[in-house]
Every structure is written in structure tokens, then in C-alpha cells.
Write a structure and sequence with these properties.
Elements lengths: L4 E2 L2 E2 L2 E7 L2 E6 L5 E3 L5 E3 L17 H7 L21 H6 L19 E6 L2 E8 L2 E4 L5
Antiparallel strand pairs: 1-2, 3-4, 4-5, 5-6, 7-8, 8-9
């Protein structure tokens, strides 16, 4: 997640595409393209600029409810149902071709889900395998 302000200017973003399951956003103000995964502008007037990261966490609803007993949740409005993605959205997207070039000898297939972790300043990548993680390389 990224702050929408850059160098004292508020930017308004919208989705313009997906590249290898990475959302590509465009800001309304300069038409620059931004990678959702890195928060960096890759094309346009602001190319090379970096948005500031916003601390966030992914937790289960049960954990969130325990931590935020008075929290509120948005729910879908049936009045706008036609504007929501279909239930098979992820399946449809997963069948689209990967735009970036891939190495045919790469052990990872396009669209592999990778988790990145750092322990004691050592970064490692783990491939998500079904419902568990397989450690790509052991920590030294």
C-alpha cells in the first residue's frame, strides 16, 4: 500500500492494466504509470519516482475482529453488483498471457506465487505450494 501524495502533490490513481498479476495504475494528474507491487513510476512524467509505503498487515477476519471489536466492514451493495468483478475473475486473469519475457529454463512457472521474507537481515524467496510454503533456499 502506498501514500497517494508525492512531493506535496496528491495523486489520484486508477487501474489501467495487469502485467504478470501486478496491477498497473495510472495517476490522473500526469498519466504516469505505477507498479502496484513496488510503488514506483515506470512510465511517464514521473518515471523513476517512488511512492512512500504505508504500513499494513494481512490477517484473518477473526483476528481483526478480536483486535478491533468496534471495527466496521464494507459490504457489497446490490445496487452496484454489475460493477463488481465476477466470481471467476481470478481464474479468468490467470489464463491471460504473461506480458513480461520469461526464461524457458526457469524452475518457476509464470504466475507462481512467491513470498519474500527477511530474517536477521537475510532475505529469502519461498514459492507458495498449494496450502503450504516450500522453502526455496535454507537460511544460513
Amino acid at each position: 500500500m502506498w501514500e497517494s501524495a508525492l512531493e506535496g502533490r496528491n495523486l489520484t490513481f486508477h487501474l489501467i492494466g495487469i502485467n504478470n498479476q501486478n496491477f498497473i495504475m495510472q495517476d490522473k494528474e500526469t498519466s504516469s504509470w505505477w507498479q502496484q507491487i513496488t510503488g514506483q513510476a515506470t512510465f511517464g512524467q514521473l518515471k523513476g519516482k517512488q511512492l512512500k509505503s504505508v504500513h499494513h498487515d494481512e490477517i484473518t477476519f477473526g483476528t481483526w475482529k478480536k483486535e478491533q471489536p468496534n471495527g466496521r466492514v464494507l459490504k457489497q451493495s446490490t445496487a452496484y453488483k454489475s460493477k463488481y468483478a465476477s466470481d471467476d475473475w481470478e481464474t479468468t486473469i490467470s489464463q491471460l498471457p504473461v506480458v513480461t519475457q520469461t526464461d524457458p529454463n526457469d524452475i518457476l512457472k509464470p504466475r507462481s506465487i512467491i513470498l519474500g521474507i527477511t530474517v536477521s537481515n537475510v532475505a529469502k524467496a519461498l514459492e507458495w505450494v498449494e496450502t503450504s510454503c516450500a522453502l526455496a533456499t535454507d537460511f544460513a
